[in-house]
Amino acid sequence: MTMIFGVPLQALLGQLLIGLINGSFYALLSLGLAIIFGLLRMINFAHGAQYMLGAFVAYLLLTFLGIGYWPALILAPLIVGILGAIVERLFLRRLYDLDPLYGLLFTFGLALTIEGTFRYLYGSSGQPYATPSALSGGTNLGFMFMPIYRGWVVVVSLVVCIGTWLLIEKTKLGAYLRAATENSTLVQAFGVNVPVLLTFTYGLGVALAAFAGVLAAPVYQVSPLMGSNIIIVVFAVVVVGGMGSIMGAILTGYMLGIAEGLTKVFYPEASNIVIFVIMAIVLLIRPAGLFGRDA
């Protein structure tokens, strides 16, 4: 049996793959956070609750309307994104000119409200959500038996992350979004409806969180606590990548997922804190994050 640093090669490759799967969720969630902060300059503390809400909307669509996984993968993010847009229109836009602390406190309260509501309705235990039949089963990679659904998660999250980056950085819409955050008055003078752009931005970030929630439902089950269990890690990912850096959020999500997986091989006791240790080291060396811009 091939060994690397005293660890069987099969175990090492297996944990690398598991780290990549976890990194896929980190990348999607941190991407949504980075978009909202980078374009709106607001820390969305409700992001974990919106991730959970995406999973629950898919579960409710299946339970009450019989709508399966594939339509829910589109409908749930759309529904949660629209709800996010309504929240932005009614509440968040009143806070843009105030201290950022007000936005953080509002989204923190929103997260507690959403999570508390679903804990009251469903308790703390998870609700099962079946893997779609087209993605059931697994394949033997030689070093591990990989469920097909987890491979799908890695592929689709990468496609969505790259597509979102291209939308923000390479299209006219993305240029308008970025310009509106720098000088909204000037952009509005050219006939662009800036308030609608800001609403779209928040709705897009929320929809990405909900999309990750639908992907996570068959893996982790649907639980009111699923958002609070992951959101602190995702904030650490965003900080390491650089607050507001779109590509930084994507790359760092995958990198830290893999780092977490490798730590489980070489020093399992530290696997739960390795991301925070990396965050502390990065902030000491480069406070703006790996891909952030220095002030």
Q: How does this structure look, described?
A:
The protein is globular, with a radius of gyration of 19 Å. The chain is built from 11 helices and 4 strands, in the order E-E-H-H-H-H-E-E-H-H-H-H-H-H-H. The chain has helices at 9-40, 47-65, 69-90, 100-122, 148-170, 172-182, 184-189, 194-220, 226-241, 246-266, 274-285; strands spanning 3-4, 7-8, 138-140, 145-147. It has 295 residues and is mainly alpha-helical. The N and C termini lie far apart (51 Å). The strands form 2 sheets. It has a two-stranded antiparallel sheet. A two-stranded antiparallel ribbon has the order 3-4.
Report the helical percentage: over 70%
Number of helices: 11
What composes the largest sheet?
A: 2 strands, antiparallel
For the termini, the CA-CA separation is 51 Å
The number of strands is: 4
Strand content: under 5%
The strand line-up of the biggest sheet is: 1-2
Radius of gyration: 19 Å
Order of helices and strands: EEHHHHEEHHHHHHH
GO biological process, one term: amino acid transport
Subcellular location: Cell membrane
Main location: membrane
Family: Belongs to the binding-protein-dependent transport system permease family. LivHM subfamily.
